[in-house]
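So, is this right?
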Amino acid sequence: MIISLADSWLEDIYKNPRYISIVWGDAHCTGDASWTASEELYDAARMPPSPILTCGVLVFESHTHISVMSTIIGDGSAGGQVHVIPQGWIISRKDLA
């Protein structure tokens, strides 16, 4: 379901925020436009994802992903830094309030 800003969805979240912390495994990439040595590729392929902690206001959740925003202006006209995290990358989550 697509909700427009005209529907004041962000203002509603501001008035009734759901704070959450999520620990998730971040993807990483090794190599660039040049050739990468086999040993470096071998090591990189076995390196686990880095655990990342994201805290903020839950603004959307579905079976595919969760979205957390760090900042919302009081009238719901704007916000900042929305983190969209695939559900399969989530290691743990905790409701904060």
Q: What stands out?
A: The CA atoms of residues 33 and 54 lie 31 Å apart.
